[in-house]
């Protein structure tokens, strides 16, 4: 799921032209988008995971995921938010609401964060 695609494979429409991979490899490039950013590679990877979750959420809204597939995504989201790095990023980044669809933001805040006990 995560990882650089092979050159002989057609690029995914959700790849954002490889931008997510570039930011993970060189987190300093986030300063191009936000001059106040001091993003680390871990934060960049967290954002990449969040975008994958947002994509799964959109797929569920469009009825392109079965209930079983969605349950697996939910388990992964809940598991991921149990750990400090993802939940802390979600809570501390005051601009995170701007980066994601409002329905996804509300879903994570109300359904995942509120029901997950952080360690």
Describe what this molecule looks like in 3D:
The protein has 119 residues and is mainly α. It has a domain at 45-113. The chain contains 7 helices and no strands. The protein has helices at 19-25, 30-33, 41-61, 67-81, 84-92, 96-99, 102-113. Helix 1 runs antiparallel to helix 3. The longest helix is centred in the middle third of the chain and has 21 residues, at 41-61. It is globular and about 40 Å long. Mean pLDDT is 75; it is low at 1-12.
Structure characteristics:
mainly alpha, 7 helices
Topology:
Elements (H helix, E strand, L loop, with lengths): L18 H7 L4 H4 L7 H21 L5 H15 L2 H9 L3 H4 L2 H12 L6
Helix pairs in contact: 1-3
Quick structural overview:
With 119 residues, the protein is mostly helical.
How is the main sheet built? none
Radius of gyration: 15 Å
> How far is the N terminus from the C terminus?
26 Å
- Total number of beta strands: 0
Q: DSSP helix count?
A: 7
Mean pLDDT: 75
Which consecutive residue ranges, at least 5 long each, have pLDDT under 50?
A: 1-12
Quote the beta fraction: under 5%
Overall SS class: mainly alpha
Global morphology: globular
Kindly state the percentage of residues in helix. 55-70%
Q: What is the string of helix and strand elements? A: HHHHHHH
């Amino acid at each position: 799921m995560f990882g650089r695609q092979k050159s002989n494979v057609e690029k995914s429409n959700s790849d954002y032209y490889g931008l997510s991979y570039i930011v993970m490899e060189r987190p300093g490039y986030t300063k191009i988008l936000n001059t106040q950013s001091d993003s680390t590679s871990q934060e960049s990877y967290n954002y990449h995971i969040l975008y994958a979750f947002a994509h799964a959420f959109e797929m569920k809204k469009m009825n392109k995921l079965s209930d079983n597939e969605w349950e697996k995504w939910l388990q992964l989201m809940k598991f991921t938010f149990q750990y400090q790095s993802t939940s802390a990023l979600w809570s501390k980044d005051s601009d995170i609401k701007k980066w994601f669809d409002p329905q996804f933001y509300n879903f994570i805040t109300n359904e995942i964060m509120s029901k997950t006990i952080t360690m």
